[in-house]
Amino acid sequence: MCRVVVQTMVKRELVNTLVKAFPGISKQDMLTVVDAFFESMAQAMMEGQTIDLRGVGRFKIKERKPAKGRNPKTMTPVYLPKRWVVHFKPAESLSKRINKKSA
User: Fold this and answer.
1) How many CA atoms lie within 13 A of 71 on its CB side?
2) Which residue has the higher pLDDT, 78 or 1?
3) Beta strands in the chain (DSSP E)
4) By the 8 A CB rule, do 67 and 80 touch?
5) Are 14 and 34 in contact (CB under 8 A)?
6) N or C: which end of the chain has fewer CB within 10 A?
7) Could you tell me the pTM of the whole model?
8) Tally of CB atoms within 10 A around 37
9) How far apart are CA 95 and CA 57, in angstroms?
10) pLDDT tens for residues 30-55?
């Protein structure tokens, strides 16, 4: 069995990576750009728009219907109301790159 080590890139690391790629931009300015990018994505999804980033994937919101759940600790029934969730579908080119690297 192959063991996969999962690491998380946080926003600070993303900003640092972008600052290295664009040395003429300060870290604070890059943070402003990244924050604006994510905020514009959130606003678009809240308006019901789909975000399609070529080579990365598609972000869209989907409605999750109300459901009956159960509290696993107490086993009491719980009502889960309708809610919206963000769905991400990776681009085929991204999936190929990831699978090529892990092989």
Assistant:
1) 7
2) 78
3) 51-53, 57-64, 67-70, 77-80, 83-90
4) yes
5) yes
6) N
7) 0.76
8) 10
9) 9
10) 999 999 999 999 999 999 999 999 99
